[in-house]
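FAQ: What does a ligand-bound record look like?

Like this one, built around magnesium ion:
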Amino acid sequence: MKISAVICQVLSTQQHQEATRYEDTAGLRFPQDGLPVVQTFRGRADTRHLCVYPAGRSTALVRVQTDSGLEGVGEAHAPVAPRVVKTIVEDLLAPVLIGSDPRAIQVLWERMFSTMRLRSHTQGFTLEAIAGVDIALWDVLGKYYQEPVWRLLGGACRRRLPVYSSGTPGRDMEARRNGIRQVQNEGFTVIKTSCGRGSIDEQMDLVRQMSQAVGDQGKLLVDAHGGMDLKEALRFVRCLEALGNVEWLEDALLPENHTGYRILTESTPVRIALGETDCNRYVVRDRLLNRECDLLLPDVCRAGGISETLRIARLADVFGVSWAPHASTSTAIHLLAGLHVGAVTPNCYIGEYPSGFAQGPFGNGLLKEPLVLENGHITLNENPGLGTELDEAAVRALTLE
Ligand SMILES: [Mg+2]
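The answer part, i.e. the structure of the complex:
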């Protein structure tokens, strides 16, 4: 069996929302745009952010086709400028893949990673593109052997995985409280909320109220989006300790603050989580050696796909560190690829379930059979590959190019 074609499909909702082109930078915004710049008592006016967000949603599906007629589907996380990923997949990776046996996934992974190593493309867009191809290759392998990916990875510790609701949208507290009630009614007990805006006192007030709304039976996860400095985070985490139902503090600091993360992790029993930004095992090794976190959050569609995310998860286990697959504004391919790795790794803590996935444009509407969420859990099935099938007509309707 040989790879005959590797193509990338850009999916976007922007065309259905407004008449602007999806790559129009006027549609991009930083999360704090429109809000007053944070002035702390020390006068810090920090306008740095982790990333920019688009007005609509986009992602990139990768299809690996073979001369046997089998096709595997993967996904690269590409919420912004998805055509960059498409170009990397089709102009850089496809030429080194076509003609190769798609079952040699680890050989092909190293070849893809080696295409631009000298030029430092070992994270970011290139790893996202590699992720899309890698996931598609695992899907091909599953279809070839007629086995689910989790079995080909060595067998599942558990096929029924707990997932948390990834957000409580809403600008004000009442909207957020309603959001919590809504996701609790859907069966979630673990719920993430975001902070990182406003003064530390305001943020402490926010999480106190959110913690109360989640209640004794639930767990609250707090994502600060890199919005704090070390002293603020140390104050903030004392507050989280006292609340009793906060399970982790995510991205408290900017990812480059390695020393800050080590001090923060040593200082508290609340789990310090990070790692969305870390896209290969080598950068994760350095974080682990430096003891910067209790929990890693690699994203399978950014961190080199199933192969590299599995290596990251296994490496974390050596250091006694847990992991939780990050998921985002993308399709079931993304969600399932992370959960397949989660199923086979004993140190997987919980998976992320993007809020609004079921009704969202990239959610169940793109699938022939909806992904079933049951009491805050997803059960991986026995179907070959990733275990889901796209509704190709629905995919075509969102395909931009
Ligand atoms: Mg996050």
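Follow-up question: can I read anything off the structure? Yes, for example: Residues 155-385 form a domain with the TIM Barrel fold (CATH 3.20.20.120).
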